[in-house]
Amino acid sequence: MTDNSYNEMFEPTGACRAHYDAYQRWLADTPEELLSRKRHEADLLFHRAGITFTVYGDESGTERLIPFDPLPRIIPAREWAMLEAGCRQRVQALNAFLDDIYHDQHILKEGLIPAEQVLANPQYQLAMQGVTLPHGIYSHISGVDLIRDGNGRYCVLEDNLRIPSGVSYMLENRRMMMRLFPELFTLNRIAPVDHYPNLLLETLRSSTPTDAPCVVVLSPGRYNSAYFEHAFLAQQMGVELVEGQDLFVSDGRVRMRTTAGPRVVDVIYRRVDEAFLDPLAFNPDSMLGVPGLLSVYREGGVVLANALGTGVADDKSIYPHVPAMIRFYLDEEPILDNVPTWQCRDPEQCRHVLDHLGELVVKETQGAGGYGMLIGPAASREQLEEFRRRVKANPAGYIAQPTMALSTCPTFVEAGIAPRHIDLRPYVLSSSQGVRLVPGGLTRVALQEGSLVVNSSQGGGTKDTWVLEDNPTSETSSC
Amino acid sequence: MQLAVQHCTRYRYEHAARSSIQYLRLQPRNGPGQRIDAWQLSLPGGSRPPIIEDGFGNLMQVLVLERAHREIAIEARGLVTLTDRFNGRRQDALDPRPFLRPTALTAPDGALARHHLGRQRDLAALCTLQQAILAAMPYTPGATEVWHSARDAWAIGSGVCQDHVHVMLGCARLMGLPARYVSGYLHSADDTHLASHAWAEIHLEGGWQLFDVTNGLTQPTHHVRLAIGMDYLDACPIRGIRRGGGAEVMAAGVRVQYAPTDQ
């Protein structure tokens, strides 16, 4: 699959792409042994800083380091401008869609999306019916997963509107690169990303009409795979990191227990899954949430970022409709393309999927993190038959897509520098001040040769992502 | 016909609980077939939390006790006039389609579904289904616990109204029919159903058709509606949690009588 993939650094002729020129000259002068030493140094530093994550389903339950690759992924300014506009457009449309389906449902009445597919979707949150949110923003923090096909064309693979994670790696990877290779940052004009925590805090503060709001980060606790990130972001923003037991509800407000007595909380950046947020409304066994939270939220007494019920918009069965949302709500043509998708809920499309199972990627509509997924060309006969059974038993639970090549980027592996498949997740912040991104995002890399699964839960690594600045005046734009 | 309703619930704890919070859905609404003439709630310490609406349009209140307590007593009482004898099929503004999805409490197992699913999706077929459910799991107070799912109750082979409704909802949704849980009160002459009652509503031909599985009814007789939801957890009159307190003893009693002037 590597053969027909788009190589980020080299033209098919073998010539280096212009935006990699300066880096390539540096790399040519740098012995591999130095890279090896630097990567080892990075591992030690990451370990010491406690930047680890837990892999679910790993019997030993041990914390693992997400492998850091010392070779950056580089994006030229013009390309980034297009990606930024495309992500912004997409997230605007998705927020408009969420506001619509929990209120007047114009898009369903127009028949642009089958109503039953939205309303009967388990991610459609009944508790959000009749709730009006400040500025109509549901997904304050969105992670848009982008890949590049064989021609280098960017496509959106999925929108993450629930609890997108990984931004701490974007920030830490940059710090690590600056520490390991400071000279690279004078050789290249690289757009900074370190203002992300400031932008995030601004986004959270402006999500409520309250002046000088109290913002907290709500984490499920230290056993969560992303606990490091929760602690990191709280510390970077200078706000409290809390768990469910630190908060309680009284007199229609959420309060935080502090040594100086209870304090009203206005905005909760919640990294707890919505099913666990209020045991009196959702999963009754949850120990991670705040009993009574939903009653306060519905009355506007607290802002949750992200809102409840965003999952219906990033559900894989709704994904094929995002281009229609962009046209309907924004009256614009989509800047970023979708990956072609077959919906198994449609008998004809399902037949096509079952006939071509060996060529396709099949995903559970509600799966995430690379779990519950079949990559046809890499699957064994048993795996194919297993998925055939599952799709037949519950067609509406699956979609299929062509096996996308995914672009490759030179990566430092055991055998030296070799191409490995990558994707890109920019983080998109929505607030009353507009939709904003820091340049770049998180580049994930599939470290095994030929592998297309970049998820850290499946053994993927990460790279620093550079957006090159063309001219000194370009800045993070907002609209 | 006017009914006088009195619903008392009392929780006693082994030790003092440090704090507790309850979602109360104990406030019936005016609607087709019922008019609330008077209604009041007595809560601990005379507390009067504001009445808010949940996502289903139910009225609810949040009772918070932030001091040590060994007991919570909640009493709801009021007068309800059952206005007209409609044919058991209600119209309302809620979109039926969200009620198509299964929940953890209602999802039936395959054997149950195969056993009961008729090919027809009409009133007659659903009446047969409701009779079959009652025959397969006769009304037996104490046979199941409140947290038991449709599958659990089906396996036990008996149950109370909550279990009957969950099984009925699970089957209806599997048949592609929107179905919802209704909690409420029922006046019955023999006084056998002492706790609050529950029945199902299934969306048929543009309206919500009542199925009182436990009593084998498709016409409301003396049914007072309290709340609706996907299952028991959404619609139950009291759902709470507490910190501390140890073991709990709960006692509940419901009396639904003809109002004095109406006898």
UniProtKB/TrEMBL annotation, chain A:
- Please name the PANTHER family in this protein's record: BLR5612 PROTEIN, SLL1039 PROTEIN
User: What protein am I looking at?
Assistant: Putative circularly permuted ATP-grasp superfamily protein
Entry-linked Pfam families: CP_ATPgrasp_2 (PF14403)
Native species of this protein? Kushneria sinocarnis
Q: Tell me where on the tree of life, at the top rank, the source sits.
A: Bacteria
Classification via InterPro entries: ATP-dep_Glu-Cys_Ligase-2, CP_ATPgrasp_2, UCP005522
Region Disordered: start and end of each range?
455-479
Q: Provide the Circularly permuted ATP-grasp type domain boundaries.
A: 72-446
TrEMBL record, chain B:
Q: Which SUPFAM superfamilies match?
A: Cysteine proteinases
Tell me if Coiled coil is a UniProt keyword of this record. Answer: no
Keyword vocabulary terms for this entry: Hydrolase, Protease
Domain annotation Transglutaminase-like: ranges = 153-215
What Gene Ontology molecular-function terms does this entry list? peptidase activity
Q: Which GO terms describe its biological process?
A: proteolysis
The record's section on PANTHER family has: BLR5614 PROTEIN-RELATED, SLL1049 PROTEIN
Kindly provide the name given to this protein in its UniProt entry: Transglutaminase-like putative cysteine protease
Q: Which organism is it from?
A: Kushneria sinocarnis
